[in-house]
Amino acid sequence: MSDYKIKSGKGMLVLQKSTSLVGLKGKKKADISKAAFVRQELLPNLGGFKVVSLQKNGATLDDKLDEVRQDEQVELGTHVYFAEGSKKPLVPTGEVFIIFQPDVDESEQMLVLDEYKLAIVERRSADQVTAKVTKDSPNPIKVAQALQQISMVKFAEPDLDMLLEEYDLTLPNDTFMADEWHLKNDGFIPSGQYTTKKGADAKIVDAWQRLNNLGSTDVVLAVIDNGIDISHPDLKPKVYRPWDLWTQSDRITDGDPGFTHGTPCSSLAIAAANGQGMVGVAPNAKFMPVSGTSFSVAATEQMFDYCAKNGADVISCSWGTTDTRYTLNSLKEEAIAKAAREGRKGKGSVICFAAGNEGVDYVNFYAAHPDVICVAACDSKDRYASYSNQGAEVSVCAPSNGDWPLLAARAWWDAGTTIRGDGAFLFWADGVNRVGPYKHFGGTSGSTPIVAGVCALVLSANPNLTAKEVKDILQKTADKIGDPSEYINGHSRKFGYGRVNADKAVAEAIRRKDGTTGSTPKPPATEVTAPVVSGEGLFRFSVERQPSQGFSVQMGVFAEYGNVLIAAEKLERMFAQPIVVNINQLNGKTVYKVLVGIFDKSADATTLLKAMKAQGVDGFVRDLKGLA
């Protein structure tokens, strides 16, 4: 078996080509598995291919695969590989994920892609593309190997498919899971006999399944509020570094019927999955209760400073004011900004604030702070909740009441809510008495801790994200709901960037962790990336036409002619070899490939490449055939 060594993820992968298996993709309506050349089908779908063994009749597998590729039933054929020490077949899908060095512009990137006859599938960002091989390309394994040797390429990895282990997540079985429509909305609330809109939820269960857990126990979620019952069975086992601004101690104030708000808010974010009652969005997260909200500067500074210094990754705040007499002064704004900037050891604490329930055309002044995630509310049918404040600062919306309320925990001293004309105090909006210390709840006070819990799941997936990146992810992955005309440049004053989607947010957090985190390496010393003004410096050179034959070492592509001169002078001095420049027009722009040395044999170019790499100059061996 042939061995191929490629970078994969955070390590190296040694692949061995199978001597018996291939992957075949049939044309429309063709049943490849019944073709005469197929001996046995092993897997019906791996990377879009059927994995089969072939009737070789004495031929080599390479020759037989080449023959089969010409069959009218076959669209594509590929070799199958095994990772060293593994018995699981791997199939290259044909796509290659490429990250270029930061200063390589698009025209230079296209030259690299054209070199290997690659087609762009998706441009993911300015320096990232997903490309696919064409019929004129080498196989994707060889392409990735070659790309990994090019100085302009930071990362290249072929997309490989294999069978994964199935680790089934056991979902929580807490009593009221079916009533928690914000986690997963199946279109009906059994206990209330109420019809909702299927799928009008925050996609929490989907996010759990993607993570294959209920979030990380390393994530700390703080709830700043009043009336937090830390003895509640869904909260008690999770309490971490509590603080009370009124007692100035870790003794949380309780028992006052005028303050019960913090208990349901806390439960929606982090209630434990313990087989009873309800479950929160991030049930594995640690719970930091900070009791005693206040408008004062000193208290504002203390509450956010305490959270940031004691390890709060996420801070949920379902309170504030829209009274125009009480806007935030610069000291309060800085207290919030400091936590968002300095929390999590400099990555920033993620701060969520409720937009407010006054139904006005501007948001809670705290929620308007540019460093926080401002949360509005939508209902169980994906409609705007009429009480939810609107504004340009709204980041996302999340499920809450409006038609059917949320289910949440209640404090042991909670007397209930007056909802009937006879003045009766009830815990449940429909009057049905449900067992246990729970109640119906809503408002942006309910939607905000749901989003805070989603932030905890996002940080569970990728703890390296900054607070700004978490906000960006939530906004970019939110689902647009309501009338499309509500949105201008992707944003609605009612819904923000849409209803929060925990599953998409977690997926994006994972993608960023796997693909783009870490420090950006400096470009190779010989590749001068800063523009050089024409005419600067004095250079002596002679020019003659180079025939398109032989082999050379290509070390870079430049868009600035001044950089070409500097690189050429340095390379000629370092390696005493002739310098060849290939000039191309691409999309109306001139680009320059710089090559070192001219050799009749590729082995001689390989020897030079080794010497160049020893001097810290990267590159790859290039066949000059075809270059004009």
Description:
With 628 residues, the chain is of the alpha+beta class. Helix content is 22%, strand content 26%. The chain has three domains: 3-161, Peptidase S8 propeptide/proteinase inhibitor I9 (Alpha-Beta Plaits, 2-Layer Sandwich), CATH 3.30.70; 178-484, Peptidase S8/S53 domain (Rossmann fold); 524-628, 2-Layer Sandwich (Alpha-Beta Plaits), CATH 3.30.70. The protein has twelve helices and 26 strands. Helix 4 runs parallel beside helix 10 and helix 5 (262-270) packs parallel to helix 8. It is elongated.
Q: Main attributes?
A:
single chain, 628 residues, alpha+beta, Alpha-Beta Plaits, Rossmann fold, 3 domains, nine-stranded antiparallel β-sheet, seven-stranded parallel β-sheet, 12 helices, 22% helix, elongated
